[in-house]
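[09:14] KT: can someone run the structure on this one? pasting the chain below
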Amino acid sequence: MQKTLFRLSVLLVMCFAIVLLISPLKGAKAVSTGETRQVDTVAHRGASGYSPENTIAAFDKAVEMKADYIEIDVQRSKDGKLVIIHDTTVDRTTDGTGHVKDLTFEQLRSLDAGSWKGKEFSGEKIPTFEEVLSRYHGKFGILIELKAPQLYPGIEETVAMILKERTLDKPQNEKIIIQSFNFESMEKMNTLLPKVPIGVLTSSKTHTTDQALNEFATYADYFNPNYKIVNKELVSKVHAHGLKISAWTVRSQETADFLLEMDVDAIISDYPDYVDPRN
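[09:31] RB: done, structure tokens below
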């Protein structure tokens, strides 16, 4: 009988050890004070570490890697079409030249937005805002950045109109978020879409004062800083003002691990698997 009990005890210990070995050590769920807290993984311009940024290839890769959100950059063509591209010129990420605002949609669509990343991405196109909404809403969240909105007067109204047409002006579970470095633009977006969460982007410590955070909290829901200015004190202060914090941009495992330790609410990364290796 004693031998049987001993063998059962050994077997239970071995089973427990196996479970620990196969369980993820870290990931999109961070453990804090005995509670499991969700940390959202945001694929920066899609899974842009692996595929050409802001293309269908990068967004599809983010789907494959089970990101919680994709982050996209919205600008406007010369003839009024909303397109997804980061730089205000097409020079870096396409085979063309010129400012986005000076090129028609037809001209933008004719460009190769993939070959710079690798021959296997040849022929990738600059997507439209509506194309991304149609293809990905419902699969995961979409973090919409208005890129240099001061160059595109009225872009806030256009974005709001498109979201309302798709009944995305009342998103569930914050699956649509709008952010920008342009604070006036975000105040405007909050007026146009009061039920859509708003984020403010910054890399400046001058925006981390209580006065600044109080002001942001009047119209924003997220304070989204460069990871280089993040520390425990800032995270606590942001939360104390009723805001969530999403840090950017992760391009190393060390940075992802640091931000997980800081207890941020979301991590914006070119490499979603650095945040959640289970993906």
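[09:33] KT: thanks! Residues 28-275 form a domain with the TIM Barrel fold (CATH 3.20.20.190).
[09:34] RB: yep, looked fine to me
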